[in-house]
Amino acid sequence: MHVIILGGGVVGVTSAYYLARAGHQVTVLERQPGAGLETSFANAGQVSPGYAAPWAAPGIPIKALKWLMMRHRPLVLWPRLEPRLYAWLTRMLANCTEEAYQRNKGRMVRLAEYSRDALRDLRAETGIAYDHREKGTLQLFRTRKQLDHVGDDTRVLDAYGVPYTVLDPAGCIAAEPALAAVRDVFVGGLRLPGDETGDAHLFTQRLAALCEGLGVTFHYGTAIARLHHAGDRVTAVETADGGLLRADAYVAALGSYTPALLRPLGIALPVYPVKGYSLTLPITDAAAAPVSTVMDETYKVAITRLGDRIRVGGTAELAGFSSALRLPRRETLARSVQDLFPAGGDLDRASFWTGLRPMTPDGTPIVGGTRVGNLFTNTGHGTLGWTMACGSGRLLADLVSGRPPEIGRDDLALDRYAA
Ligand SMILES: Cc1cc2nc3c(=O)[nH]c(=O)nc-3n(C[C@H](O)[C@H](O)[C@H](O)COP(=O)(O)OP(=O)(O)OC[C@H]3O[C@@H](n4cnc5c(N)ncnc54)[C@H](O)[C@@H]3O)c2cc1C
C-alpha cells in the first residue's frame, strides 16, 4: 500500500518508520526544509511516562486562576475573540472531574508506557543516538506545602504501577549532585526512575535518515494546501504549488495545523495550539549541570541535560498561532535554571525558542481512523508528543495495515468525542 504522511515532525517521522517497517511504500510531505523543525525542534527533552497525565484535573480551575496571577506564571491566557479557544477551554474544563481525569490518565499512561518500550526497541533495532539518557526524572519541591501534597501524585503512581521514590534534600542531591550548591532552595523531591531524556529534534532527523534507507521518500519544502476527496475517500493531496499527489491511505500528522486541513472534509478535531518556550544553554561546568531532568514544581519548568547543553522548557500560553518570542517567558525560564543550576551553563549564549503544543481537551492524542475511509490521524499529543511518538507511530502502522494493535485503541481515535 502507498501511504502519504502529512507532516514531518516527530510524530510523522515515527509513523513513517513503522509503516515502512510494515512493508508499505511511504511518502512524507513537510513544508520545512528538514524533519522536526517546528514543535519537535526544542522541547524539554523528557520521555516521561511517569508524568503522563492530562492537564485537565480536579482542582485545576482554581490552580489556574492562581497561576495567572504569578509574576513568573506557568499559564498565560491572552484575551482573544476566538470562538475555537473558548469551545476548547469549555471542553477542557468539562474534563476536570475525578472520573474524567482517571479515564484520561489511564489512556495516556497506556500509550506512554507502550511508547517508552517501543522507543527502547527502536534503539535496539537501529542503534540510533540522540543525546539520550536513562536516568529518570526528579520533580523538585521548593515549599513544604508542595512536599505535603506529594501523596496526591504517589496515589496515582501507585494505581498505575509507576515506580517512584519520595526524597529528602540529601536524596535529591544524591540523584542530582549539582543541587548541593543550592540546598536551601528546595525541601524534597519525587523521583521517577523509569523516565528517559533525549533530543527530539536529533532523534527525528536521524530517524528520517534511517527511513530514507528503508525507501521512504521525503518531500521537504512542500506546503500542503488541501485534500481532495470523493465520497468517503481522500483522492489526492494538493500542494501549495498546485501539484497533486495520490496514495491509497493518508495520515494527518500536522500537529496544531491538522484541524484546519481536515475541517473542509467535515472532520472537527478538537486540537488547540498551546504555546511553550525553551532556552538552550551550552554547559560550562558539567559537574554543576543536571544529570537528567529536574522539574521545578513552582514554575512548572523542566531542566534537562542534553549532551553538552541544558534545555529549559515550560509555560502554557493560550495565544492562537502566534510565534512571538515574549521576553517575560524567557525571564521565567532563566530564573528557574539560575536558581537551581547557577553555574551549569551560560545564559548569555542561550537560544530562545517557542513551539505550539497540539493539545486536545482530554490530554490524549487522536490516533486512528476517521469517517473518511482512507484518512487516519496521528496528532493532538500536547505536552507529551516526544514521549508518545514511537507508541503512536507503531499503533498507527498496525491500524493502517489492518493488524491487531498491541494495546487497546478504541478510546484513542476521534470517535471518542462523538461518544
Ligand atoms: C516548550 C515545550 C516543551 C515540551 N516538552 C516536551 C517534553 O519534554 N516531552 C514530550 O514528550 N513532549 C514535549 N513537548 C511536546 C512535543 O514537543 C510535541 O507534542 C511534539 O513535538 C508534537 O509533534 P508533532 O509531530 O505532532 O508536531 P510538529 O513537530 O509540529 O510536526 C508537525 C509538522 O507538520 C508540518 N506542517 C504543518 N502544516 C503543514 C502544511 N500545511 N504543509 C506541510 N507541512 C506542514 C510542520 O512543519 C511540522 O514539521 C513540548 C512542547 C513544547 C512547546
Automatic annotation (TrEMBL):
Q: Which GO terms describe its molecular function?
A: D-amino-acid dehydrogenase activity
Catalytic reaction equation(s): a D-alpha-amino acid + A + H2O = a 2-oxocarboxylate + AH2 + NH4(+)
Supply the source organism's classification: Bacteria, Pseudomonadati, Pseudomonadota, Alphaproteobacteria, Hyphomicrobiales
Binding residues for FAD: 3-17
Do the record's keywords include Flavoprotein?
yes
Q: What does this protein do?
A: Oxidative deamination of D-amino acids.
What HAMAP family has UniProt attached to this entry?
A: DadA
Where in this chain does the record put each FAD dependent oxidoreductase domain? Answer: 2-399
Q: Which InterPro entries match?
A: DadA, FAD-dep_OxRdtase, FAD/NAD-bd_sf
Q: Name one GO biological process term.
A: D-alanine catabolic process
Keywords per UniProt: FAD, Flavoprotein, Oxidoreductase
EC class name: oxidoreductase
EC number(s) per entry? 1.4.99.-
What cofactors does the UniProt entry give for this protein? FAD
Question: What is this protein's gene name?
Answer: dadA
Q: What is this protein called?
A: D-amino acid dehydrogenase
Per the record, the similarity remark reads: Belongs to the DadA oxidoreductase family.
Question: GO cellular component terms?
Answer: cytoplasm; plasma membrane
SUPFAM superfamilies per UniProt: FAD-linked reductases, C-terminal domain, FAD/NAD(P)-binding domain
- Entry annotated with the keyword Flavoprotein: yes
